[in-house]
Amino acid sequence: MKKTRLISLALVLLLTLGAFIVITRTPETASAPHDAASLAKNNPASEPAASDRQPAAGSNPTSTKLAAEALASSASADNSAPASRSASSPILSTGAPAAAASASIAGAGLGSSSQTSLADELAARYANATTPAELLHDADLSNPVVRAFVVARMSEMQDAQHESALAKAERLGIPVRIEGPNQKVAILYDFRGDKPLYRSALNVNAAISTGANLLRDQTAPYGLDGTGMKVAVWDEARIRNTHREFTTTRVVLKDSATTYSSHSTHVAGTIGATGTDPLAKGMAPKVAIDSYDWNSDYTEMTAAGAATATDLARITLSNHSYGGYFATAAEYVPYMGSYEVEAQTTDALAVSLPYYQIFWAAGNEQDYLLTKGGYQSITFNGLAKNIITIAAANDAVASGVRNLAAGTLTTFSSEGPCDDGRIKPDLTANGKGVYSCVAFVPPADTSSSTTSYDSYDGTSM
Fold first, then answer.
1. pLDDT of residue 95
2. Which of 33, 35, 120, 399 has its CA 20 to 30 A from that of 442?
């Protein structure tokens, strides 16, 4: 019988919220996310991914330098107001995270001549960078000018990737959005050769199973309820922050997303629902949550993550309950257990932000990706070295009491190991029948709601 360590994503969040930890990263040279040979080995498609291509016209170091200088000199940006993406100047409208970087630079007291000199140096240094991983290599994100430059350039890269993917989809007659049963949605993200790569949310008694209730509900000696701390949730769309389990001051919408998601709301509720319905109480019911959609996630994570122990205005933890999706099992095979560009980019980001810990769902393909004998069904970001990858177990509860013997691994939860021999996933939590708040009235999910709940399966939960 396979043994798993039963602990929830939300519990790990809770433990980390209670005591700030110094995170030891795998050296970036070991991960080598910027190494061209490694990229070629792990991305065997005939045509490079959009993220590996040269930036689109208008995306160049000079324009990025100008954008970084503009960010460095604009102290009056409103950090709380979501910004819409501008077609004429995408790098100047990256939303709240870029505004936060701008405010940080303005508050650093750097003279304009110093900013301009460093911007010139950065523009020259990263003139040939074509991927976020290359851009992050050895970047000192504790320096606000460097961070502003990296965020602006990365925004260009992700915008160019998105536009390239849309153009190729139109040329090949490939759908940009696929809607499946049970409200499952897949949205075009990139290409691997001529194969479209989509992103999809990973759906398929939490506190008792993991023991989080013992830390959350007892005043002494723990009382770890998230007070005074902040996490971020990147997901398919907005969290319904007007749900009765939240307040709009505790759960803040941070980017230009305009749609709400029951999946995003369910994930956020598992982390931090206040407990208006006691059965849906989150692991850290007083934690603040920043809500983002998954568009431009690398750029926003780079802007928002903590680089130093004193970087208290930024986030130290984030949740990502989504992953790569192909239309057929055969298309996954080259990426099963493979340390490819998405994992490399995630590692480069984690190495650059040593006080920011990323949590990623392992995936729900264990009973679908069988080519390698039931192993290596984790793909893409979940294989990164410097993140915590979470699997799903059955509820470890019997008669209202914690019972670890019942916490067996679900049949759908993706498993490792990685091609290089590393063990993945890292931790396991209950992901079967998890009850939490949602944004729409189930099961149709067509009517908005601030009072609805539902039970979901998946490593997302």
1. 37
2. 399
For position 401, what pLDDT does the model report?
A: 67
Q: What is the pLDDT of residue 183?
A: 61
Whether residue 334 contacts residue 358, with contact meaning beta carbons closer than 8 Å, is answered with: no
In percent, the amount of the chain with pLDDT more than 90 equals: 47
Gap between the Cα atoms of 150 and 169, Å rounded? 28
Mean pLDDT to the nearest integer, 179-206: 79
Task: Output phi, psi for 247, to 5 deg.
Answer: -125, 155
Instruction: Tell me the chain's radius of gyration from C-alpha atoms.
Output: 21
Q: Give the separation between CA 447 and CA 443, rounded to whole angstroms.
A: 10
